[in-house]
Amino acid sequence: MPFAHKRFLELLDSLGTDPNSHKRSGVGYALGGGHGVIKSGPPSTGRPIAYWSPLFPADMKAAIDKKFDDLVARVGRGRAEDMAHTNRSLFVFPNLVINDILGLNIRTFFPTSPDEVEVTVWGAGFSNDTPEERAMRVSALISFIGPGGFGTPDDVEILESCQRSYAHAGIGYSDFSRGMSVGTTKHTDEEQNRAFWREWANYVEQP
């Protein structure tokens, strides 16, 4: 993320975000059947559940902090911190992604040709959000996700660059070997990616 979304991180820093939060640690797991998940923290941005950041209005900090205190009272500090202070992305094979990051969003993607894919994203919230909280979450989400955000255009450019390379590469395969050591489960490793392609190969290679 520090390399792919430099402009967004600079925006967060200008708002008062701790730069150390950009250096996250986490885990990634293959869940079987082509499914995978990654978890990381601390967040660089506010989170849908009880994590305030300078990206959110200052006058909402007390209400968000109270939500976290209520979580601790209800489920204990360890689980509350996992819920509120952790980013996670769940991939459900073959084409569903649930991103629980600065805003909860649900994505599907459908290939429409060998070199094109159609991606649809829905933002999700909570039924008990106040109008102010919902506006805050929507504003934070679209600051990063979507064609006008800081993140999605970067991702699209990266993917299109990859597609141009695939069209001319003589190797014939993509390298997803990062983190193949036994017992390695870093969120920056690629076991969850390998899980997808292994399952995909099982389908396309069937007679």
Beta-strand percent range: 15-25%
Note the main sheet.
6 strands, antiparallel
Count of beta strands: 6
- Spatial order of the strands forming the largest sheet: 1-2-3-4-5-6
State the shape: globular
Q: How do the SSEs run, as a string of H and E?
A: HEEHHEEEEHHH
N- and C-termini, Cα separation: 40 Å
Structural class: alpha+beta
Uncertain runs are: none
The number of helices is: 6
Question: Please, what is the average pLDDT?
Answer: 88
Percentage of helical residues? 25-40%
Radius of gyration, in angstroms, nearest whole number: 19 Å
Concise account of the structure shown:
The protein is α+β, with helices and mostly antiparallel strands and about 210 residues long.
Q: Can you describe this structure?
A:
The structure is a single chain. The chain has 207 residues and is an alpha+beta fold. It has helices spanning 6-15, 61-75, 77-84, 131-142, 152-168, 191-204; strands at 25-32, 35-41, 87-92, 96-100, 104-113, 116-123. It has a 6-stranded antiparallel beta sheet, covered by helices on one side. Helix 2 crosses helix 3 (77-84). The longest helix is centred in the C-terminal third of the chain and has 17 residues, at 152-168. It is globular and about 60 Å long.
